[in-house]
């Protein structure tokens, strides 16, 4: 059967609180970053992206922050809801490439 | 409307019995990707097609093959599935530019008995 996977870092938050999920990316040549949400048994779903010429981008209830100096990306979710419970992956895209490099993922659990 | 479609959603096969997974897209994207994802891990790229050009990842076993007969369809063939091939298989598509967003299908969960 399927081999046992690595233990995912888990963030547990109270419904209504804000969530912050962090990601350290690997390559200083990366110039495009994406956050994906993956619910159990489903494919990754695009949430928000940011280009390297920006340090912040906002969507509906979500904000992505990019710190190129320390190669750090974060996803902030405002007023977290039970439907936000999922695994969140960051992904980076190197300049002149269309392939993505995925981070290891963080599981978000929302307590009612 | 679904943009990247995978069939079947669940596939059970026997050890060593060839299996084919299917992906189709309505986005008219140039690139189609196949990923393998095991429990609690990130998706792992197996290979991709840019139009008709096949690009294999260096560590993808020979047991995994792919076909892309036209822009819309791409297949993943596993010639002799082993127990270690049980996983979620994800198809994704993108335009093929730099700073390119990949859109994923729902995945096919493969069980090997």
Instruction: Briefly note the structural class of the backbone of chain B.
Output: mainly beta
Structural class of the secondary structure composition of chain A? mainly beta
Please count the helical segments of chain B. Answer: 0
Shape of chain A: globular
Element-by-element helix/strand order of chain B: EEEEEEEEEEE
Oligomer: heterodimer
Series of H and E elements of chain A: EEEEEEEEEE
Question: Can you tell me the overall shape of chain B?
Answer: globular
What's the average pLDDT of chain B? 95
Biggest chain pair interface:
A-B, 34 and 34 residues
Span from first to last CA of chain A? 34 Å
Q: Helix amount of chain A, in percent? A: under 10%
Amount of beta strand of chain A: over 45%
Radius of gyration of chain B: 13 Å
Question: Which whole number gives the mean pLDDT of chain A?
Answer: 91
What helical percentage do the residues of chain B reach? under 10%
- The tally of beta strands of chain B, per DSSP, is 11
Major beta sheet of chain B, specifics?
Answer: 7 strands, mixed
Percentage of residues in strands of chain B:
over 45%
Write the layout of secondary structure elements.
The complex is a heterodimer of chains A (112) and B (113).
Chain A: E1 10-14, E2 19-24, E3 30-38, E4 45-51, E5 56-58, E6 62-67, E7 72-77, E8 86-94, E9 100-102, E10 106-111
Parallel strand pairs in A: 1-10
Antiparallel strand pairs in A: 2-7, 3-4, 3-8, 5-6, 6-7, 8-9, 8-10
Chain B: E1 4-7, E2 10-13, E3 19-25, E4 31-37, E5 44-50, E6 53-56, E7 64-67, E8 73-78, E9 87-94, E10 103-104, E11 108-112
Parallel strand pairs in B: 2-11
Antiparallel strand pairs in B: 1-3, 3-8, 4-5, 4-9, 5-6, 7-8, 9-10, 9-11
Structural overview:
The complex is a heterodimer of chains A (112) and B (113). Chain A is mostly beta strands and 112 residues long. Chain A is 0% helix and 54% strand. Chain A has strands spanning 10-14, 19-24, 30-38, 45-51, 56-58, 62-67, 72-77, 86-94, 100-102, 106-111. In chain A, the strands form two sheets. In chain A, strands 1, 3, 4, 8, 9 and 10 form a six-stranded mixed beta sheet that branches. Chain A has a four-stranded antiparallel beta sheet with strand order 2-7-6-5, with no helix packed on it. Chain A starts with 9 loop residues before the first strand and ends with a strand. Residues 1-5 of chain A have low confidence and may be disordered. Chain B has 113 residues and is mainly beta. Helix content of chain B is 0%, strand content 51%. Chain B contains no helices and eleven strands. Chain B has strands at 4-7, 10-13, 19-25, 31-37, 44-50, 53-56, 64-67, 73-78, 87-94, 103-104, 108-112. In chain B, strands 2, 4, 5, 6, 9, 10 and 11 form a seven-stranded mixed beta sheet that branches. Chain B has a four-stranded antiparallel beta sheet with strand order 1-3-8-7, with no helix packed on it. Chain B is globular and about 40 Å long. The interface between A and B is medium-sized, with 34 and 34 residues.
